[in-house]
Design brief:
The chain is of the alpha+beta class. The chain is about 40% helix and about 25% strand.
Length: about 120
């Protein structure tokens, strides 16, 4: 229940403050191993963003951000207390951002440190 509430809160924040004019969104998550720190999660998130060719944006206390041409915005929210990283892409359509969300998830799983598991939608 706590994970679901956290996911809904993050989706609400991104939907309200996401890319201007965005009409499509893709959201997914990767489980984190217990004991994952916010620092290691954010490091993996930054590596995933860079390795998928997104232009890195400012990192916040709990999220790494990136963008792609055409106003597509992506975020990886690290919630280690809930053992989850949430992946969000916003753009003109979910079909447009979904492949990048999948690429981010794969890069995150393959990145530095442990953690990760099979995606669930």
């Amino acid at each position: 229940m706590t994970k679901r509430m956290g996911l809904l809160a993050v989706v609400g924040i991104v939907a309200g403050a996401g890319a201007a004019g965005a009409t499509g969104m893709s959201v997914n998550h990767v489980p984190l191993q217990p004991g994952t720190t916010i620092a290691s999660c954010l490091q993996r998130a930054a590596i995933a963003i860079a390795s998928t060719g997104l232009r890195p944006l400012n990192t916040t206390a709990t999220a790494a951000w990136g963008e792609r041409e055409g106003g597509r915005i992506f975020s990886i929210y690290c919630l280690p207390d809930n053992n989850v990283a949430i992946f969000i892409g916003a753009g003109n359509s979910s079909r447009e951002v979904s492949p990048d969300v999948t690429s981010l998830m794969n890069a995150f799983r393959d990145g530095a440190g442990g953690g990760g598991g099979a995606p669930r939608k």
